[in-house]
Structure formats: C-alpha cells, structure tokens
Amino acid sequence: MAGRRAPAGWSLPRAPSFAPGQRFGPRTPVVLARAAQLWQADEETLADLLHAALLVETSGMSLSHPTAVAGAVARQVGRSRCLADLHADVHGLVDRLTDRPASRARWRRAVRSFFGDEWAALGLHERDRMVQRCAGMLHDLLHMCLSVEAVADVADDELILSAHGPWLSGLRRGRPVPGDAWAAAPEILGVVSHLLAPLDVETLGIVAGVHQIAMTRGVTEAPGYADLCRRLSGWALVSASGCPWDPTLASLPGWRPLLEALPHGVLAPLALLEDWATCVSSALTHRLRLSGEDVRVLAAPFRQDLPLLERRLNDPV
Known about the structure:
Elements: H1 28-39, H2 43-58, H3 64-76, H4 80-98, H5 101-115, H6 124-150, H7 157-171, H8 186-196, H9 201-216, H10 225-237, H11 245-249, H12 256-261, H13 271-285, H14 292-299, H15 309-314
C-alpha cells in the first residue's frame, strides 16, 4: 500500500541490476518486487492469497513441490546459495508480517476475513491455532512464488504456471484464471463455448446461480459437488486449464441483448459463471484424473439447463 515502509532487507532497488552476484541471483529485483506485492498488500488481498493457497492444498497439489523443483533447477545453474538465503529471509519476512506485535492485529483481521462466517464458531484456542496455521500457509505460498521467480529465466512453463498461478489469483481478488497463460487449450474452450452458446442471458444467470447454491448449500443429487469444484479450481490455478471470461465467455451470443442495451457495449465479468466454466474446462483438461462418479456429480445440478454436459465431459477432446 502507498506509504508503507519496506521491511528491513526487502526494499526495492532504485536502479535494478540483473548482475549474477546479487543476494538472490540475477533476478533479485524481480524477487523483491514479488515480495513487495505481499508486504504492501491490504487485509482483503492477504485473505485472497490464503484462499488461493488453500485451493491448491485441498486439490491434492502441494505448495512445496514447485519449491523443491526450483531447488533442483537452481543447482543446475549455480544458484543454490541464493535459494538457501531466500528460504531464511522468507521466514523473517512472514514472521514480521504475522507475528510482530505491531502486525498481529492486522494479520488476525486478515485471517478472520479468510474464514468469514466460520470465524464466529471458533473458540479462542482454535482461533489462535488457525492464525498460526494460516501464517504457515502464507509462508509456503510466498516461498514457492519467490523460489520459482529466482530461477524463472531457466525454468519451464509448467513450473512457472504452478508457482505463479495461486499468487496472481490472490492478487487479482481470487480470479479463477490468473492470466492468459492459464487458459485451457482452444479445443477445450470450444467445448465450453458450444455448451453455453444456446443459452439466453437469463439461463446463463441460472447456471451461475445453481453453481453458487451447490457450492454453498449443497444439492441432494450431487453430494460432494463443492469439494469436487474446489479440486478442479485448484488444478486450474497451477496449469493451463481455466476458462477466461474474455474472450470465451464475454462473446457468448446470450449476452447480445444486454450488450445492445449498454451504452458502451461492455459487459463486466460474471464471477460465478467464470468460476463454473473454469471447473468444466479443468475437468475436460484433467479428465483422466476424474472418475465417472466425479463427472456425474459435476453435471448433476445442470441436467435441466445443460442436458448435454455429462456427455460432453465424457467425450474425448
């Protein structure tokens, strides 16, 4: 945030240098800039970062795996010492942001925002435990992002997607698709577009609404829907399997009457629809990781409005 002083050792350089002998190697300025996104973050952004980290963890993926891979890459290019120093310094930075007396109240508010209504049901001891657990999760997320950033110039795309996806999603208010690089293959997006193309604006809203109900209150015909969608969303944060709003969803024919009524013809993203569409594109991308029952559960709430969904999820793409 504007005016916030950088923690000791994390100031941004006035004149960035990419010399190899720096503290975190030649990409030190970029590593520091990524860290600044955290120490400048407001409480809402901290909560969004925690949400993205939790999605990855609950999806069966690991926040520590990309860090380990980055370590192997660093050894190949002589940057092991840089990552060792980074590991030690990340501990200090996260401790400063979460456990320093001047920071504890702010961090606790961020964790309370992350838990939402569930916070009120927790006892004092449980709240303290969750505050510590969330600090550990923030550490793992930051360590992963910065470790891969330090070797991003020699890392492959898969590693960069897995490490930067959760980070960027958190910074972008929990957007299900962190950026263009996380979009699914055109063939996958074509399937999603084809499924939604016949729907008018009202039915598109119904799909988004049913998804929200199934995520928050559950539906009897699809127990486990919310857990499945969280798993699919987590996969979409670490691989090219999401469905971006623009151009795939923004160009659906169903929006045309609404666009014609708008003065500038611009339609704001419908977050719930993008979230649902990303679950579908992630399921299509990672179909081999899903069981037949998973597919049935994902399609069940939409049998009336999208009767072809289950079949399309089972068709080869």
